[in-house]
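Ticket #4471: structure export looks truncated?
Reporter: QA, pipeline team
Priority: medium

Steps to reproduce: submit the single chain below to the structure queue and open the exported record.
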Amino acid sequence: MIKGILLSIVLGIVSAHSGDTIRLEANQNYEGQIIVRDCENVVIEGNGATLIPKGGRGYGVEIANSRYVTVRDLTTTQVPTGGSEHVLIDGIRCYTSYPWGDGLNIFASSYVTIRNCYAETSDDCFTVYASRKGYHGHSRHIVLEDCTFLPKVAHPIFIGLHGAASDETHPTDIDTIEDVTIRRIHILNQKERQLDYQGCLAIVAGDNNVVKDILFEDITVDHIETGSLLTLRIFKNEKYCQAPGRCIDNITFRRVTAPDEGNISLIHGYSDDRKVSNITFEDLVIGGEHIYDAMPTKPKWYKTADFARFVIGNYVENIQFK
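Actual output as written to the record:
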């Protein structure tokens, strides 16, 4: 058991070992990082804070190639989970200010639960990717619940961009991101001027990824200063991807409430064999108006998506508004 370690010692890096419990004493600030690598049965807890030195950047807690890890209650910076399974992140407060400072990242990991967290970040608050940062494989069985997000730029929630593809027409690997449940999330704002990186709720499939079986439930968006509510898109982002994604399939948005502001949302596939399909909206409320296929105020020649301010592009099939 390790208790109240002063993280400024040994260049601010503390490496956990299997079976460790690391406690950060309440109201104490520790300058440094905690790394959980190739471990099992590790607990990191306490109401203290792990801080990056002023002007620096880095992870507050890094979970790498490990199993049965719990992180709870502390204040920290970016917390990535890569190549791991059976991870619980509970009740942490995550702040970043350096460029590309994400909050809660998942790479090629399964059975990860993140709950009761607050993230105020200089880039994406929460992401789910497949192969990335030296981690390889699928991301499955992810739960995000009861969290509040405030990104200074980029996305509150971003899924699907990175995977293992090496060639657009002959992929060597097909990564899958599936069984992701996102519920009871409060998004305070989006402020992102780059049109390709908007969407409070964003799924952008790249690198031959298969992205499927995603549930968004009980989502509240307070304000969209610059951005959009939604992006569902398959495309090849030349900056980050070697290929477009394979598909986005079986996505449900249930009880999403948002203001009638921001840019138009985009739903768009890539080709006949790289489609966005089986998208369901249930109890969608925008600007106080319920949006559904049988809404009495919709003229017959209008698409329901017009009332949601969604553009449905090519290679999209089976969208329902209930």
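Status: closed, not a bug. The export was complete when the record was re-opened. Leaving a note from the reviewer for reference: Residues 1-11 have pLDDT under 50 and may be disordered.
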